Amino acid sequence: MKQIDRKKLRAVCSVLFVLYIICIVYFLIFSDMFGRGGYDERRYNLHPLQEIQRFITYGDQMSPMSVFLNLYGNIIAFIPFGMLLRWARNKNTTFVQALLYSLGFTLVIETVQYITKLGVFDIDDIIMNTLGGVIGYCIYYVTAKLIRRYHAKK
After folding, report:
1. Count of CB atoms within 10 A of residue 50's CB?
2. pTM, rounded to two decimals
């Protein structure tokens, strides 16, 4: 890929990354759509997989949208984070770095939810969001390898 094309792609990806971060912060902290009206007290779940198990066990008694959002939405929502991370950092990002950035960003979001009482600090959200970021990074990595291999054969 030409240097100018790479710079344009990096700029577009950086803008997309910033817009993505703004959207995630809005939806996970302020959006009424996800019941962010606030609690009277701080709420948290520090038992790994407890909420995931609850949604699996009692999912038939909940709305399908609620089950989907809680079991898959947290993963899907963070896939773009992992995919755009490499371009936003302007450096080669390793798997471990992608994992740590995904974990760190999720911890910030969950901590803000806890401090502001606008959500629940949930270890399961941290696990699933981090998994989504790592999946996104893996998608980026495999796609980049395939593109490089394709261009090398030309």
Report:
1. 13
2. 0.89
